[in-house]
Amino acid sequence: MDDIDALSRRVFLRRWATGTLQVGALAAWAPWWSREILSAQERFPVVASEPWGKIERIAEGVWALTSTPLRDRTTLCNGGIVEGRNGVVLIEAFGSDEGFEWMAGQARRLTGRGPTHVVVTHYHADHTAGLGAAGRSGAEILATPVTRDATRKNGNVPGPVLDRITSLDTIRPTEIELGDRSLILVPRRGHTDSDVTVEVTEPAVVFCGDLVWNEMFPNYVDALPLRLTQAVTLLLASVAPTFVPGHGPVADVRDLEGYLELLLHVEEAARRALQEGLTATQAGEAYRPPPEARDWTVFRGDYYARAMAAWMEELTRP
């Protein structure tokens, strides 16, 4: 793809997704221990708060956890609780058994019932390390075969728990019927080769997993960059007004527009670096987000290089 094609694709994505995109607040790199990720202004009522995160009531029967991994790694990732007449769904297994058990306890406190289902959006350990506790909870665990097999290779979850996972279709959406509402589990790709979004139909809320990061620079370690951009564009085309990212504060449409702008900015930087003959490491050291991006942070200082490496592999693949 030459520069004109790249520009045309960018313009198409921007116009097709939302009409006119507005740049959100992104950020320059800073050491992971030096920044906060919680927004100063609360958009939703906070029903629980601990050093590792807060739970917000997004809508009737829908709660989102925003973890604060820069302070405490008990839960590590974001997730949520969705209540229906016939069950309670916990989204993610979180970064430790203790994190899962805390969230399961919050589900019991908020709904009067423990989780009947646990949905895992992908295989990274900050989303799966609590699967041992999830297995002991008695809930049905749902994940893609890729997530199950990659988690087994990670070696941090008991094998019998993984053997009991209900495999999700990787082509067609899966519905969890809760009586008075449904959750649609949509297979996607981008952050990894096997992502799932959890989409509440009424009211419209999307739990995005790590396909979306808000006020934090994304981890490209297993990313398929072009697929990632496409997945976020499709999410923007949905009717949902609220998105729960894998990391960072709960997002709205403008936040998602800003995130897409960042993804496109990273792509353009990788293309320039390839033209200049830079390595991924050199490109990562040279990369700076746009001026509007000064409030976002990253977990580690190599995240820019990871992003450049992922895009360079994508752009040079035969």
Which helices and strands appear, and what pairs or packs with what?
Elements: H1 3-18, E1 46-50, E2 53-59, E3 62-67, E4 79-84, E5 87-91, H2 97-111, E6 117-119, H3 125-128, H4 131-137, E7 140-143, H5 145-154, H6 159-163, E8 166-167, E9 174-177, E10 182-188, E11 195-200, E12 205-213, H7 225-236, E13 242-247, H8 253-275, H9 280-286, H10 303-316
Parallel strand pairs: 5-6, 6-7, 7-8, 12-13
Antiparallel strand pairs: 1-2, 2-3, 3-4, 4-5, 9-10, 10-11, 11-12
Helix pairs in contact: 1-7, 2-4, 7-8, 8-10, 9-10
Polypeptide structure, described:
- The N and C termini lie close together (12 Å).
- The radius of gyration is 19 Å and the shape is globular.
- The protein is built from ten helices and 13 strands.
- With 318 residues, it is of the alpha/beta class.
- Strand 4 and strand 5 (87-91) form a beta hairpin.
- The strands form two sheets. It has an eight-stranded mixed β-sheet with strand order 1-2-3-4-5-6-7-8.
Radius of gyration: 19 Å
Measured between the Cα atoms of the first and last residue, the distance is: 12 Å
What about the largest sheet? 8 strands, mixed
Number of helical stretches of at least 4 residues: 10
Counting helices, strands and paired strands, the structural category is alpha/beta
Overall average residue pLDDT:
88
> Which strand-content bin applies to the residues?
15-25%
* Overall 3D shape: globular
